[in-house]
Write a structure and sequence with these properties.
The protein has 313 residues and is an alpha/beta fold. It contains ten helices and 14 strands. The protein folds into two domains: 118 residues, Rossmann fold (3-Layer(aba) Sandwich); 160 residues, Dihydrodipicolinate Reductase, domain 2 (2-Layer Sandwich), CATH 3.30.360. Bound molecules: nicotinamide-adenine-dinucleotide (NAD).
Protein backbone atom coordinates (compact mmCIF):
# COMPACT_ATOMS: atom_id res chain seq x y z
CA UNK A 1 0.00 0.00 0.00
CA UNK A 2 1.63 3.26 -1.09
CA UNK A 3 -0.04 5.40 1.59
CA UNK A 4 1.22 3.24 4.47
CA UNK A 5 2.72 5.18 7.38
CA UNK A 6 6.50 4.77 7.44
CA UNK A 7 7.87 3.70 10.82
CA UNK A 8 11.30 3.70 12.39
CA UNK A 9 12.10 1.85 15.62
CA UNK A 10 14.61 3.41 18.00
CA UNK A 11 16.30 0.85 20.26
CA UNK A 12 16.33 -2.75 19.05
CA UNK A 13 16.21 -4.69 22.34
CA UNK A 14 13.54 -6.99 23.76
CA UNK A 15 10.31 -5.00 23.31
CA UNK A 16 11.32 -3.72 19.87
CA UNK A 17 10.64 -7.19 18.43
CA UNK A 18 7.00 -7.00 19.61
CA UNK A 19 6.67 -3.62 17.88
CA UNK A 20 8.27 -4.92 14.68
CA UNK A 21 5.95 -7.92 14.50
CA UNK A 22 2.77 -5.90 14.92
CA UNK A 23 3.95 -3.06 12.67
CA UNK A 24 4.60 -5.56 9.89
CA UNK A 25 1.18 -7.15 10.41
CA UNK A 26 -0.68 -3.82 10.37
CA UNK A 27 -1.92 -2.95 6.86
CA UNK A 28 -1.48 0.78 7.49
CA UNK A 29 2.17 0.72 8.57
CA UNK A 30 5.50 -0.17 6.99
CA UNK A 31 8.60 -0.71 9.10
CA UNK A 32 11.34 0.94 7.06
CA UNK A 33 14.18 1.59 9.51
CA UNK A 34 15.62 0.90 12.93
CA UNK A 35 18.52 2.25 14.95
CA UNK A 36 20.56 1.32 17.98
CA UNK A 37 23.73 2.75 19.51
CA UNK A 38 24.80 -0.90 19.50
CA UNK A 39 25.01 -0.96 15.70
CA UNK A 40 25.60 -4.72 15.22
CA UNK A 41 22.39 -5.23 17.21
CA UNK A 42 20.54 -2.86 14.86
CA UNK A 43 22.00 -4.71 11.86
CA UNK A 44 20.82 -8.09 13.16
CA UNK A 45 17.39 -6.64 13.92
CA UNK A 46 17.18 -5.07 10.46
CA UNK A 47 18.17 -8.34 8.78
CA UNK A 48 15.46 -10.17 10.73
CA UNK A 49 12.67 -7.65 10.08
CA UNK A 50 13.76 -6.48 6.62
CA UNK A 51 14.37 -2.82 7.30
CA UNK A 52 17.37 -0.45 7.14
CA UNK A 53 19.69 -0.16 10.18
CA UNK A 54 21.24 3.07 11.50
CA UNK A 55 23.70 3.63 14.36
CA UNK A 56 21.60 6.40 15.93
CA UNK A 57 18.21 8.10 15.76
CA UNK A 58 19.58 11.36 14.35
CA UNK A 59 21.09 9.57 11.36
CA UNK A 60 17.86 7.62 10.85
CA UNK A 61 15.72 10.78 10.96
CA UNK A 62 18.09 12.62 8.58
CA UNK A 63 18.04 9.81 6.02
CA UNK A 64 14.38 8.73 6.14
CA UNK A 65 11.03 10.53 5.94
CA UNK A 66 9.36 8.79 8.87
CA UNK A 67 5.74 9.22 9.92
CA UNK A 68 6.12 7.36 13.24
CA UNK A 69 8.90 6.62 15.69
CA UNK A 70 8.37 3.68 18.01
CA UNK A 71 10.67 4.58 20.89
CA UNK A 72 11.95 1.37 22.50
CA UNK A 73 15.03 2.48 24.42
CA UNK A 74 15.43 2.43 28.20
CA UNK A 75 13.46 5.21 29.99
CA UNK A 76 16.45 7.48 30.72
CA UNK A 77 16.67 8.38 27.01
CA UNK A 78 12.92 8.74 26.27
CA UNK A 79 12.71 12.52 26.78
CA UNK A 80 15.74 13.44 24.66
CA UNK A 81 15.01 10.97 21.84
CA UNK A 82 11.26 11.57 21.96
CA UNK A 83 11.65 15.33 21.61
CA UNK A 84 14.13 14.84 18.77
CA UNK A 85 11.68 12.55 16.93
CA UNK A 86 8.73 14.93 17.39
CA UNK A 87 10.78 17.94 16.22
CA UNK A 88 11.77 15.96 13.12
CA UNK A 89 8.06 15.64 12.28
CA UNK A 90 7.27 12.10 13.45
CA UNK A 91 4.37 10.96 15.61
CA UNK A 92 5.69 9.26 18.73
CA UNK A 93 4.70 5.91 20.22
CA UNK A 94 6.82 5.94 23.37
CA UNK A 95 7.36 2.83 25.46
CA UNK A 96 6.37 3.12 29.10
CA UNK A 97 7.23 4.99 31.25
CA UNK A 98 6.91 8.20 29.20
CA UNK A 99 10.07 9.53 30.86
CA UNK A 100 12.06 9.37 34.08
CA UNK A 101 10.26 12.33 35.67
CA UNK A 102 6.97 14.19 35.27
CA UNK A 103 8.96 17.33 34.36
CA UNK A 104 10.60 15.51 31.45
CA UNK A 105 7.20 14.19 30.41
CA UNK A 106 5.69 17.69 30.43
CA UNK A 107 8.48 18.89 28.12
CA UNK A 108 7.62 16.05 25.69
CA UNK A 109 3.92 16.93 25.78
CA UNK A 110 4.74 20.59 25.11
CA UNK A 111 6.88 19.72 22.07
CA UNK A 112 4.22 17.33 20.70
CA UNK A 113 1.67 20.12 21.00
CA UNK A 114 3.95 22.69 19.31
CA UNK A 115 4.75 20.27 16.48
CA UNK A 116 1.13 19.12 16.05
CA UNK A 117 2.14 15.45 16.44
CA UNK A 118 0.48 12.57 18.29
CA UNK A 119 2.14 11.27 21.42
CA UNK A 120 1.04 8.01 22.97
CA UNK A 121 2.51 6.03 25.85
CA UNK A 122 2.71 2.32 25.04
CA UNK A 123 0.96 1.01 28.17
CA UNK A 124 -0.02 -2.22 26.46
CA UNK A 125 -2.00 -3.62 29.41
CA UNK A 126 -4.84 -1.22 28.69
CA UNK A 127 -5.37 -3.26 25.53
CA UNK A 128 -5.30 -6.63 27.33
CA UNK A 129 -8.66 -8.38 26.86
CA UNK A 130 -9.27 -9.33 30.54
CA UNK A 131 -8.58 -5.71 31.57
CA UNK A 132 -11.01 -4.40 28.96
CA UNK A 133 -13.67 -6.85 30.20
CA UNK A 134 -13.08 -5.91 33.86
CA UNK A 135 -13.37 -2.22 32.98
CA UNK A 136 -16.63 -2.94 31.11
CA UNK A 137 -18.10 -4.76 34.16
CA UNK A 138 -17.19 -1.74 36.26
CA UNK A 139 -18.53 0.85 33.81
CA UNK A 140 -21.78 -1.09 33.29
CA UNK A 141 -22.34 -0.95 37.05
CA UNK A 142 -22.24 -4.76 37.41
CA UNK A 143 -19.74 -4.53 40.27
CA UNK A 144 -21.82 -1.89 42.04
CA UNK A 145 -19.95 0.79 43.99
CA UNK A 146 -16.18 0.28 43.97
CA UNK A 147 -15.06 -0.39 47.55
CA UNK A 148 -11.41 -1.30 47.06
CA UNK A 149 -8.67 -2.40 44.70
CA UNK A 150 -5.60 -4.61 44.86
CA UNK A 151 -2.87 -4.96 42.23
CA UNK A 152 0.26 -7.12 42.47
CA UNK A 153 3.12 -7.39 39.99
CA UNK A 154 5.47 -9.39 42.19
CA UNK A 155 8.16 -11.38 40.45
CA UNK A 156 11.89 -11.82 39.94
CA UNK A 157 13.55 -9.76 37.23
CA UNK A 158 17.27 -9.82 36.55
CA UNK A 159 17.90 -6.35 35.08
CA UNK A 160 15.64 -3.82 36.77
CA UNK A 161 17.99 -0.89 37.34
CA UNK A 162 18.53 0.22 33.73
CA UNK A 163 14.76 0.10 33.25
CA UNK A 164 14.29 2.61 36.10
CA UNK A 165 13.84 0.24 39.06
CA UNK A 166 10.59 -1.54 39.85
CA UNK A 167 8.62 1.66 40.51
CA UNK A 168 9.29 3.13 37.06
CA UNK A 169 9.24 -0.23 35.29
CA UNK A 170 6.31 -2.46 36.33
CA UNK A 171 5.16 0.46 38.45
CA UNK A 172 4.32 2.44 35.30
CA UNK A 173 1.78 -0.26 34.35
CA UNK A 174 0.48 -0.36 37.94
CA UNK A 175 -0.12 3.39 38.33
CA UNK A 176 -1.72 3.58 34.90
CA UNK A 177 -4.06 0.71 35.88
CA UNK A 178 -4.90 2.50 39.09
CA UNK A 179 -5.83 5.73 37.35
CA UNK A 180 -7.62 3.92 34.50
CA UNK A 181 -9.66 1.52 36.67
CA UNK A 182 -10.01 3.18 40.07
CA UNK A 183 -9.61 6.93 39.67
CA UNK A 184 -7.32 9.89 40.17
CA UNK A 185 -5.25 9.75 43.37
CA UNK A 186 -5.83 12.03 46.34
CA UNK A 187 -3.62 10.59 49.14
CA UNK A 188 -0.65 8.23 49.00
CA UNK A 189 1.10 6.22 51.74
CA UNK A 190 4.02 4.03 50.72
CA UNK A 191 7.01 1.91 51.59
CA UNK A 192 9.70 1.55 48.92
CA UNK A 193 12.65 -0.72 49.60
CA UNK A 194 15.59 -0.76 49.81
CA UNK A 195 16.03 2.66 51.47
CA UNK A 196 17.96 4.74 48.91
CA UNK A 197 18.03 8.23 47.43
CA UNK A 198 17.99 6.73 43.92
CA UNK A 199 14.60 5.64 42.55
CA UNK A 200 16.29 3.19 40.17
CA UNK A 201 17.44 1.13 43.20
CA UNK A 202 13.82 0.28 44.11
CA UNK A 203 13.03 -3.43 44.17
CA UNK A 204 9.92 -3.47 46.43
CA UNK A 205 6.90 -1.18 46.62
CA UNK A 206 3.84 -1.25 48.88
CA UNK A 207 1.61 1.73 48.18
CA UNK A 208 -1.81 2.54 49.62
CA UNK A 209 -3.63 5.11 47.51
CA UNK A 210 -7.00 6.80 48.09
CA UNK A 211 -8.84 8.33 45.14
CA UNK A 212 -10.54 11.70 45.06
CA UNK A 213 -13.82 9.76 45.55
CA UNK A 214 -12.39 8.04 48.65
CA UNK A 215 -11.78 4.57 47.14
CA UNK A 216 -8.71 2.85 48.63
CA UNK A 217 -6.37 0.67 46.60
CA UNK A 218 -3.05 -1.10 47.08
CA UNK A 219 -0.22 -1.51 44.60
CA UNK A 220 2.39 -4.14 45.42
CA UNK A 221 5.49 -4.49 43.25
CA UNK A 222 8.64 -6.54 43.51
CA UNK A 223 11.51 -7.58 41.26
CA UNK A 224 13.14 -9.74 43.92
CA UNK A 225 10.71 -12.46 44.97
CA UNK A 226 10.59 -16.16 44.17
CA UNK A 227 7.11 -17.13 43.08
CA UNK A 228 5.06 -13.96 43.45
CA UNK A 229 1.79 -12.91 41.83
CA UNK A 230 0.43 -10.96 38.88
CA UNK A 231 -3.16 -9.89 39.34
CA UNK A 232 -5.48 -6.96 39.55
CA UNK A 233 -8.68 -7.16 41.65
CA UNK A 234 -11.65 -4.80 41.76
CA UNK A 235 -13.90 -5.21 44.82
CA UNK A 236 -17.38 -3.76 44.45
CA UNK A 237 -20.59 -3.67 46.51
CA UNK A 238 -22.26 -5.98 43.94
CA UNK A 239 -19.34 -8.01 42.62
CA UNK A 240 -15.63 -8.74 42.35
CA UNK A 241 -13.51 -8.97 39.19
CA UNK A 242 -9.97 -10.36 39.15
CA UNK A 243 -7.64 -10.05 36.16
CA UNK A 244 -5.46 -13.11 36.59
CA UNK A 245 -2.22 -12.84 34.61
CA UNK A 246 -0.81 -16.17 35.75
CA UNK A 247 -3.73 -18.22 34.49
CA UNK A 248 -4.43 -15.72 31.71
CA UNK A 249 -8.03 -14.56 31.98
CA UNK A 250 -10.70 -12.90 34.07
CA UNK A 251 -12.74 -14.34 36.94
CA UNK A 252 -15.62 -12.51 38.44
CA UNK A 253 -18.45 -13.00 40.88
CA UNK A 254 -21.66 -11.00 40.76
CA UNK A 255 -24.27 -10.89 43.54
CA UNK A 256 -26.72 -13.33 41.94
CA UNK A 257 -24.36 -16.13 40.86
CA UNK A 258 -21.11 -18.01 41.56
CA UNK A 259 -17.66 -17.39 40.18
CA UNK A 260 -17.38 -17.13 36.40
CA UNK A 261 -14.03 -17.84 34.71
CA UNK A 262 -13.46 -16.33 31.28
CA UNK A 263 -10.57 -17.53 29.14
CA UNK A 264 -9.86 -15.96 25.78
CA UNK A 265 -8.78 -17.59 22.54
CA UNK A 266 -6.48 -14.69 21.78
CA UNK A 267 -2.77 -14.79 20.92
CA UNK A 268 -0.50 -13.62 23.77
CA UNK A 269 0.54 -10.55 21.76
CA UNK A 270 -3.02 -9.35 21.02
CA UNK A 271 -2.55 -6.35 23.29
CA UNK A 272 0.41 -5.10 21.21
CA UNK A 273 -1.58 -5.44 17.96
CA UNK A 274 -4.44 -3.45 19.48
CA UNK A 275 -2.09 -0.82 20.88
CA UNK A 276 -0.48 -0.12 17.51
CA UNK A 277 -3.83 -0.25 15.66
CA UNK A 278 -5.24 2.30 18.09
CA UNK A 279 -2.28 4.66 17.59
CA UNK A 280 -2.46 4.35 13.81
CA UNK A 281 -6.24 4.98 13.84
CA UNK A 282 -5.67 8.11 15.92
CA UNK A 283 -3.15 9.40 13.36
CA UNK A 284 -5.38 8.57 10.38
CA UNK A 285 -8.54 10.01 12.00
CA UNK A 286 -6.81 12.87 13.81
CA UNK A 287 -8.14 11.79 17.21
CA UNK A 288 -6.43 11.72 20.59
CA UNK A 289 -4.72 8.46 21.62
CA UNK A 290 -5.31 6.93 25.03
CA UNK A 291 -3.14 7.04 27.01
CA UNK A 292 -1.74 10.24 25.52
CA UNK A 293 1.25 12.24 26.76
CA UNK A 294 -0.79 14.08 29.40
CA UNK A 295 -1.82 10.74 30.89
CA UNK A 296 1.78 9.59 30.80
CA UNK A 297 2.63 12.69 32.85
CA UNK A 298 -0.14 11.92 35.37
CA UNK A 299 1.24 8.36 35.67
CA UNK A 300 4.67 9.83 36.44
CA UNK A 301 3.15 12.24 38.97
CA UNK A 302 1.65 9.25 40.81
CA UNK A 303 4.99 7.43 40.68
CA UNK A 304 6.63 10.53 42.15
CA UNK A 305 3.92 10.78 44.84
CA UNK A 306 4.58 7.15 45.86
CA UNK A 307 8.30 7.82 45.94
CA UNK A 308 7.89 11.01 48.01
CA UNK A 309 5.47 9.28 50.41
CA UNK A 310 7.99 6.51 50.97
CA UNK A 311 10.69 9.09 51.83
CA UNK A 312 8.36 10.53 54.52
CA UNK A 313 7.45 7.12 55.94
N1 LIG B 1 5.01 -2.73 27.40
C1 LIG B 1 5.66 -3.75 27.94
O1 LIG B 1 5.08 -4.73 28.36
C2 LIG B 1 7.17 -3.66 27.99
C3 LIG B 1 7.93 -4.82 28.12
C4 LIG B 1 9.33 -4.68 28.12
C5 LIG B 1 9.92 -3.43 28.03
N2 LIG B 1 9.14 -2.31 27.94
C6 LIG B 1 9.74 -0.96 27.87
O2 LIG B 1 10.48 -0.85 26.65
C7 LIG B 1 11.65 -0.04 26.85
C8 LIG B 1 12.87 -0.86 26.43
O3 LIG B 1 12.93 -2.05 27.20
P1 LIG B 1 13.72 -3.33 26.64
O4 LIG B 1 13.52 -4.40 27.63
O5 LIG B 1 13.40 -3.58 25.22
O6 LIG B 1 15.22 -2.78 26.78
P2 LIG B 1 16.54 -3.38 26.12
O7 LIG B 1 17.64 -3.01 27.04
O8 LIG B 1 16.34 -4.81 25.75
O9 LIG B 1 16.67 -2.55 24.74
C9 LIG B 1 16.92 -1.18 24.70
C10 LIG B 1 17.79 -0.92 23.47
O10 LIG B 1 17.90 0.49 23.29
C11 LIG B 1 19.22 0.75 22.83
N3 LIG B 1 19.54 2.16 23.07
C12 LIG B 1 19.87 2.75 24.25
N4 LIG B 1 20.08 4.07 24.06
C13 LIG B 1 19.89 4.32 22.73
C14 LIG B 1 19.96 5.49 21.92
N5 LIG B 1 20.30 6.69 22.45
N6 LIG B 1 19.67 5.38 20.61
C15 LIG B 1 19.34 4.18 20.06
N7 LIG B 1 19.29 3.02 20.78
C16 LIG B 1 19.55 3.10 22.10
C17 LIG B 1 20.08 -0.21 23.63
O11 LIG B 1 21.35 -0.41 23.03
C18 LIG B 1 19.20 -1.47 23.61
O12 LIG B 1 19.50 -2.30 22.50
C19 LIG B 1 11.66 0.35 28.33
O13 LIG B 1 11.10 1.63 28.46
C20 LIG B 1 10.73 -0.68 29.00
O14 LIG B 1 10.07 -0.21 30.14
C21 LIG B 1 7.79 -2.42 27.90
Amino acid sequence: MSNQLKVGITGTGGIAHEHARVLQANENTRLVACCDIDFPKAEAFAAHWSCKPYPGQEQMLDAEQLDIIALCTQPHSHAQLGIQALQAGAHLLCEKPLAMTAAEGRAMVQVARECGKKLMVAVCHRFHEPVIRAKALLNEGKLGRLKGYYNAFVTRHPSYKDRGGVLLDNGSHAVDFFRYLVGEPQDVFAVVNPPSEDITDATEVWALIRTQEGVPGTINLSFDVTGGAALCALYGSEGTAVVDYERGGLRYKLADRGWVHEWYELPADHRFHREVSHFVDCILNDSEPGPNGEEGVRDLELIEAIWQASRRA
